[in-house]
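so my prof wants the structure for this chain in the tokens format not the other one, which i didnt know existed until like an hour ago. anyway here's the sequence
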Amino acid sequence: MTRILIIDDESMVRFSLRRLLEGVGYEIAEAEVSRDGVAMQTASQFDLILTDIIMPEKEGVETVIELKRDFPDVKIIAMSGGGRTRNPDFLKLAQQFGADRIIAKPFAEEELLDAINGCLGSKQA
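here's what i got, hopefully its the right format
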């Protein structure tokens, strides 16, 4: 079964993503902060990581850099609503530093599933 890690500081976002992705057959784990997400990836490697960009403690761009450095084969989708400034440049930065796909919040379920399928290719749920 394909395993996906969700790193997002908003519990409702994690809940919604878990519900959607488990509903289509993925195994899901969650982390509230980047530090925990990186530790979870180190302990038990995931096929794909969905990470928010604007988070406390460590920004998602730093998380993308760290994950790609330590786990170059992991697929990463960076998500962001742009924070207080609604700035889409954060997503562009994440992509420049290794995110395989970027997706702006709010997004349609189909948009997310398309991004996941694009990253995983034949490795479906």
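also thought this was worth mentioning. The mean pLDDT is 90.
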